[in-house]
Amino acid sequence: MGFCRWLFAVTPETKPRRARAHWRRRSQWLAVSTFALLASAKTVFAEQGAELSLQRIGSGNPVAGKQKSADERCQECHGEDGNSGDVRIPSHAGQYAGYLVKQLSDFKSGARSHEIMNVMAADLTQEDMADIAAYFASQKVMRGDRIADNPLAKNLFVNGDAARDLPACASCHGENGKGKIADNVIYPVIGGQRRVYLRSQLTNWKLGERKNSPEAVMNKVAKSLNDDELNALVEYLSGL
Ligand code: HEC
Ligand code: HEC
After folding, report:
1. pLDDT band per the 50, 70, 90 thresholds, residue 162
2. Is the C-beta atom of 76 inside 6 A of ligand 1?
3. Residue-range domains of the chain with CATH
4. Cβ of 185 below 6 Å from ligand 1
């Protein structure tokens, strides 16, 4: 009998004993194969999960990073678990490690300037940066209090504005601004980021005082926002 016919065979009522044996073998086969299928699906999902968290955490050592970020006093400003208690200081919790390392390298080289951070990054090695970034990236991703009901900002965030060639923020920064990696570009988490920090960055991009984004993409985006839109986006994003 072909395998499919065996599996789906209708029990021949005229031969109850053979039928019972057939049912038994068939249920056993189904149980074993369902188990095997579930087990392999679990492995695949676990591997996908591991791959995703590796993407977020990068190659650094989060355990060493926890100690280093305490010793280097990063936690004093950015929070023990990467959630900053000050609206002017960015959170790093769940931020992509690759993005954090890029910013630290940019502070170190001067490609991004900030009085405090240029000093803080000055004597970090590549390994320190990777470890500290891995620690913050491995924390539960930052999250706002979701109070902002803001149609102007939401529309710009989700749809952009084709009339002035403004792409949707979400097309790069992902759903709810939780960031993503695509074609080797890291789009940072901005949803749930601290409010005053967001305003200062959008303003700096707009004025050209921060200019370290790939192909100046964020300068173009911020320049096409008027002040009302910029403020609305800040309120909206910090709540996500
Ligand atoms: C005295 C407070 C203070 C300390 C200490 C400090 N930071 Fe910062 N950090 C800031 C502020 C303020 C900013 C925002 C800079 C800006 O406005 O451009 C910042 C920005 C950053 C950013 C950029 C974040 C982003 O989303 O782009 C990174 C990464 C960072 N800090 C990492 C560190 C690390 C690592 C340490 C420890 C070696 C550290 N910081 C220590 C205050 C601090
Ligand atoms: C075409 C892709 C793209 C679009 C569209 C885009 N961004 Fe960005 N954005 C980026 C990239 C890439 C970076 C990281 C720059 C870097 O590496 O320094 C960034 C960085 C930022 C940052 C700095 C985050 C931090 O922690 O310092 C903010 C804030 C931001 N974007 C807000 C927005 C808002 C608001 C919109 C929509 C109005 C938007 N972005 C649209 C690509 C984009």
Report:
1. very high
2. yes
3. 3-56 (no CATH), 58-139 (1.10.760.10), 147-240 (1.10.760.10)
4. no
Burial of 70 per CB tally in 10 Å (0-12, 13-18, 19+): middle
- Contact indicator for 142, 193 with CB cutoff of 8 Å: yes
Q: Which ligand is nearest to the CA of 156?
A: 2
pLDDT tens sequence across 91-133: 999 999 999 999 999 999 999 999 999 999 999 999 999 999 9
Go through the chain and tell me how many residues it has: 240
Looking at the DSSP bridge assignments, the partners of residue 185 are 182
Question: Does ligand 2 come within 6 angstroms of the Cβ of 188?
Answer: yes
Per DSSP, the three-state class of 153 is helix
- Residue located nearest, by CA, to atom 23 of ligand 2: 201
CA-nearest residue for atom 39, ligand 1, is: 74
From the CB of 70, is ligand 1 less than 6 Å away? Answer: no
83 CB contacts (<8 Å, ≥6 apart)?
91, 93, 139, 142
- Ligand 2 pocket test, pick from 142, 213, 231 with the greatest ligand atom count within 8 Å of Cβ, gives 213
Name the percent of the chain in helix, strand, coil, to the closest 5.
65, 5, 35
Task: Answer yes or no: is 172 a known binding residue.
Answer: yes
Any atom of ligand 1 within 6 Å of the Cβ of 101 = no
